[in-house]
Design goal:
This protein is an alpha/beta fold. About 40% of the residues lie in helices and about 20% in strands. A hairpin with a 5-residue loop joins strand 2 and strand 3. The structure holds magnesium ion. Magnesium ion binds near residues 184, 186, 210 and 251.
């Protein structure tokens, strides 16, 4: 099997400010795998260093180490190839790209969507949240009103980045009483700050608070002290986090889970522990977001699925969004494999 890796850069229309810093540009690695039969599958690596601590160069180096594994993989199935890559370099952000390309290749060869390879009854649409990037009250309120007008039921606001209370209240006022309001602190707070902040934001009516603090022990303490549902995101990478039962929901990402296979396995563990899962992108490109949509469509057939953080391609400048949400939902692509073309 032939492996090709190339870099691709995408610029955000407007930098996205989180408590870990601003992201203005994304560098992605697009991977292709071509078999002897000439069928090519495409995957993508989307490490986000300020979020996951993994640089693009680190992923490139891992993919080079996978090359002999992939090129000598005749006779191995997809799971065996991904396992072999993991043994060479255990970097989920890198072997995710191999996993995606293998799923895409199988789907293209069989003329079926990836979601339909996972389950007989994938959802045809996945609910997604709108992410409001404005840091000022007026801008955030305008974005909220626009999102509701477009049919989004769930709006997400980054917190731990300045005037949280004013911004969240302005968003609620603009969105009306029915929209779900999700806040994400990216672990900006201590336990005491989190409890105080969540109490201060609660009158706006929150669907859940994502990653109020980092670490299982701290999350457990916050959850015991606030009435709002708590989700983990970054902390889901901690050993034992998926079955720890410290949160009401767990945000899973293709990149951190090591691809579609890893995400589905993680979701099964989380659901067995009694928590909900939802899927989000790390500002992935089209292939990564498509992989998230296929995984989410499969998960929706097996249990409740809160709004997913997959409506992110519209944040890039000059990109025609092949997975544009309609009425707050992304339709499962029709085409075979992941159903989108590489950048
Ligand atoms: Mg998050």
């Amino acid at each position: 099997m032939k492996l090709v890796v190339r870099r691709h850069a995408l610029r955000l229309r407007q930098p996205l400010q989180s408590s870990y810093g601003a992201v203005a540009e994304r560098e992605l690695l697009v991977v292709s795998l071509t078999d002897e039969d000439g069928v090519t599958g495409y995957g993508e690596a989307a490490p986000l260093e300020p979020y996951d601590g993994v640089s693009i160069a680190r992923v490139e180096a891992a993919l080079e180490r996978y090359r002999p594994v992939v090129e000598g993989a005749a006779g191995m199935n997809g799971a065996e190839i991904v396992d072999a890559c993991r043994r060479v370099d255990d970097l989920p952000e890198a072997f995710a790209a191999i996993d995606l390309a293998l799923w895409d290749r199988t789907g293209r060869r069989m003329g079926r969507s990836v979601a339909s390879l996972v389950t007989d009854t994938p959802a045809d649409r996945v609910p997604v949240n709108a992410t409001l990037s404005a840091l000022d009250r007026t801008g955030a309120a305008e974005q909220a009103a626009r999102a509701v007008e477009l049919g989004f039921d769930c709006l997400k606001v980054k917190v731990g980045v300045g005037d949280d209370a004013g911004r969240v209240a302005a968003v609620r006022a603009a969105a009306g009483p029915h929209a779900e309001l999700r806040v994400d602190a990216n672990g900006a707070w201590s336990v005491e700050q989190a409890v105080r902040s969540i109490e201060a934001l609660s009158p706006a009516g929150l669907e859940l608070v994502e990653e109020p603090v980092h670490g299982l022990t701290a999350v457990r303490e916050v959850r015991e002290r606030v009435a709002v549902r708590v989700a983990i995101d970054e902390t889901a990478a901690e050993h034992g986090a998926l079955t720890a039962g410290v949160a009401d929901a767990v945000c899973l990402k293709i990149s951190r889970c090591g691809g579609i296979s890893g995400l589905l396995a993680a979701a099964a563990l989380v659901r067995a522990s009694g928590a909900e899962v939802y899927v989000a992108s790390t500002l992935d490109g089209p292939l990564g977001v498509a992989a998230g949509v296929h995984a989410a469509a499969a998960l929706a057939s097996r249990g409740p699925l809160p709004a997913c953080g997959l409506a992110t391609l519209g944040m890039f400048d000059g990109l025609i969004d092949p997975l544009a949400p309609v009425e707050g939902k992304i339709a499962l692509p029709d085409g075979p494999g992941l159903g989108v073309e590489p950048l």
